[in-house]
Amino acid sequence: MIGRTISHYQILEKLGEGGMGVVYRAEDLDLKVTRALKFLPPHLASDAEQLARLRHEARAAAALEHPNICQVHEIGQADGQTFIVMSFLEGRTLADRLADEGSLPIGEALDIATQVGDALKRAHAAGIIHRDIKPANIMLTDGGQAVVMDFGLAKAADQTRLTKTGTTLGTATFMSPEQMRGEMVDARADLWALGVLLYVMVTGRVPFGGDNLPAVAYAVQHREPAAPSGIRPEVSTDLARVLDRTLAKDPQQRYQTADELLGDLEAVRDEQDLARKTALYDRRQKLKRRKRILFGAVAALVIAAVALAWWTRYQDLHRIDALAVLPFANLSGDQEQEFFSDGMTEALITELQQLALGKIRVIGRTSVMRYKETELSLPEIAAELGVDAVVEASVMRTGDLVKIAAKLIRARPEERQVWADTYEQNLNDVMSLHENVARHVVVQLGFRSEYSGQISGKVDPEAYNEFLLGKHIINSGAVNRALPHLERAIARDSTFAPAWAWAAHCIIMPTHGGWPSPKDDFEKARIYAERAIELDPELADGYFILAHILWEHDWDMPAAQEAFDRGFALNPNGGSGIGLLTYAMFHLIHGRMEEAVAATRKARELDPFEFLGNVAAFNVFSPAGLHEESVASLERAQEVFPEADLRHEWSWVHYGMGNYEEAIELKSELLAEAETDHGKFIQTLMLAHFHKCAGNPQEARRLYDRYWPLVDQDRVRPYHKAWMHADLGEIDESFAWLEIAYQQKDRYIPLSRLNRDVMFRDMADDPRYDRLLKKIGLED
Predict the structure, then answer these.
(1) Treating both helix axes as pointing N-terminal to C-terminal, what angle do 461-475 and 497-508 enclose, rounded to 10 degrees?
(2) Distance of CA 258 to the CA centre of its chain
(3) How far apart are CA 656 and CA 733, in angstroms?
(4) How many angstroms separate the most distant Cα atoms in the chain?
(5) What is the model's pLDDT at position 326?
(6) N or C, which end of the chain has less CB nearby within 10 Å?
């Protein structure tokens, strides 16, 4: 091969060989530059399907321009050989370096891992997964760069790697458990491999070893690696924590993005740099000590004390990834003021979510309120909520004067106060009061907020009082009784934006499950929501409430998406518990199941003990086939509210799992207890469908016949009539009633996208169904 000309490349020398081909240094005769040519192995080059996949991946990889990614210039074919043209790099592979030295200095290992992480961040943003991160694919250039090679190659080979002879123990060692099982992988598989890479660089050993491929596969999937500090004592706790998280067997427990991992790597590098500077300082002090013993000793003690205090604070703050604001203690002595202290708790949570812009996870109101009168210790509370720190606060209201005392406490692994301060403000400045507290907490957490909003203006004290009462009633579940308080708040202070937003929320909430949906209520709610946004363009909840109105009532899907985007830009955590769950339903009606599941999971993570959120979660998890998560969410809801009747939800979960007998039993109980004609028909509709799916069509027909008079008397909404006819296989009649429901602007029409695979499954391929969805802005 040496000396031959392939296409317009002259082969100069062989650089290396591996399972994915042979690499040569070559001269581009046209451009007069040196390139690296990788000739692919025969089993790839001769497979047309694999070769097509390879070309597609190589084209995508060629678009990646990054200093830590080896540039792909061309994929060519000549003389029956397929080759990839890449930039030529002077240096040696990380595999060669490790073979010579065993392990690397920790600082250098972190630097290499960070550069590889930067490359993965760029590739993942472009939708490209490497799938084969290992030392042999990392080139260490003479200029000190770590460059990732072979982007675009691994996916093409991924289908056969585990069964071809090209598989090596070295390759297998870096494969994630899901990749080892042959499952579909995502970016988290690359992060696993980077974790293995870092472990090897730091310890000089592979975390999952074995004498053969089955042994390695077993270790990767079932064994835990040896503690790195046991192999190399200078490995810090923080570095060990990063390694533990990257090597979590469950992808959900790993870092979810390269950017998230890079943040922690940067923190560990800062830690290493501080240790190096401290050691250097100590050495210098010893040299000076001979000349100025007394002064040097005093200076050393002072510096050591400052360094220790700074380091303790650094450790306390820098590793806080999740935070909970515990219920404010009401120091007024007036039980009637509990709603005020609860309202201040919720206000601080919302402000922290908005100021933090997703950089830390702030637990939602419902989950923290369960600890209002708990005997659990702070570490126990933190463990249950999965947070690192808590904010404890008390509030005292005397007349129109409000005083807040707040503390930031690291709760795990041991309890330690980090910061405390006291604030006092007149009640008409209460909005700026909790914003000031939130801003100071954010500063103490060690980062600057990018939130551009200004401190809120004044609010009428009585208006704020009515607003907090209204929110307190909403949180207790009595939405209808909250609206008068919110509208009184508006009457007292027409410039108070949150009152307008939550009044809109109250107006549309009672319509859920009602019939018919009052059109005038939605019109009124839209006016309220738009007024809230006009008064405060930075109010995230206003946009989420408006988005709900736009998609459910107006069927204006682009405008709803725009409102959602604005709301999440202001508060990535989804506002006061309404944004993420509403957005999940919005994704669901558009058929975007993965996005709906992601939004629901995030909502549960941010407010794990929120009752309605856990109940609503089954609406997403069940149709997605995630039955274990669906069951878990309903079990959590029952745990939070044991008295709640969740038989309707459980019946549909059993239906989704194919447990028709259990579903029929629960639905039969609900039918027997239904009191109104409309309620009886709805339960009948579902029960009949369950019988049909269980193979009892005669029983389904008998149930429908029993309540047919209600249909004839027009006492059932058209949408449910369409549902019944569809279930009976009477397709034309079903479409006729769906058209009437559309003309009446029935709010259930967008939800028909969800029911397409359940009640309307026999109509799903009918062009009339697509036309209906398109008329309301929904398309497959």
Answers:
(1) 30
(2) 14
(3) 27
(4) 106
(5) 86
(6) C
Interatomic CA distance for residues 529 and 611, integer angstroms: 25
Bond from prior residue into 516 cis (ω within 30 degrees of 0): yes
Structure tokens given for 777: 């802005």
Q: Give the SS3 label for residue 640.
A: helix
Q: Which superfamily is assigned to 91-268 in CATH?
A: Transferase(Phosphotransferase) domain 1 (1.10.510.10)
H or E, element range at 50: helix 48-62
Per-residue pLDDT tens digits for 207-221: 998 878 888 888 899
Q: What would the pLDDT profile of 230-281 be if each residue is shown by its tens digit?
A: 899 888 888 998 999 999 999 999 999 999 999 888 878 766 655 554 444 4
Please enumerate in sequence order all residues whose Cβ is within 8 A of that of 323, keeping only pairs 6 or more positions apart, or say none: 352, 360, 361, 362, 363, 387, 388, 389, 390, 391, 445
Give residue for tokens 């497979």.
47
For the chain, what is the radius of gyration of the CA atoms? 31
Supply φ then ψ for residue 322, to 5 degrees: -140, 145
| 8 A C-beta contact, residue 567 and residue 575 | yes
Q: Which positions are catalytic? A: 132
DSSP class of 552: I
Among residues 487, 482, 460, 458, the alpha carbon closest in space to that of 469 is found at 482
Convert 679-709 to b/e letters by CB count within 10 Å (16 or more is b).
ebbbbbbbbbbbbbbbebeebbeebbeebee
| Low-confidence stretches of the chain (pLDDT beneath 50) | 156-167, 277-318, 449-455, 511-517
Candidates 176, 228, 198; CA nearest to 116 is 198
CATH placement of domain 5-87: 3.30.200.20
What residues does CATH 3.40.50.10610 cover in the chain?
322-458
**Please, where in the chain does CATH 3.30.200.20 lie?**
5-87
- Residue 299: the pLDDT is 47
User: In this structure, which amino acid lies at residue 397?
Assistant: R
Domain 322-458 falls under CATH 3.40.50.10610: yes
* Residue length of the chain: 780
Report d(CA 552, CA 620) in Å as an integer. 17
Buried b (16+ CB within 10 A) or exposed e, 16-52: eebbbbbbbbbbbeeeeeebbbbbbbeebbeeeebbe
Count the neighbouring beta carbons within 10 Å of the beta carbon of residue 145.
Answer: 14
Within the chain, which residue ranges are assigned CATH 1.10.510.10? 91-268
Distances from the Cα of 438 to the Cα of 325, 340, 444, 533, 578, angstroms: 10, 17, 10, 22, 21
Tokens for 268?
Answer: 């560990």
CA angle 235/236/241 to nearest 5° reads 105
Q: How far apart are CA 416 and CA 307, in angstroms?
A: 18
Angle between helices 647-656 and 677-693 (to 10 degrees): 20
Measured at the CA of 771, the angle between CA 729 and CA 730, to 5 degrees, comes to: 10
Q: What are residue 32's DSSP bridge partners?
A: none
Asked if the peptide bond before residue 413 counts as cis, ω within 30 degrees of 0, the response is yes
> How far is Cα 316 from Cα 301, in angstroms, rounded to an integer?
22
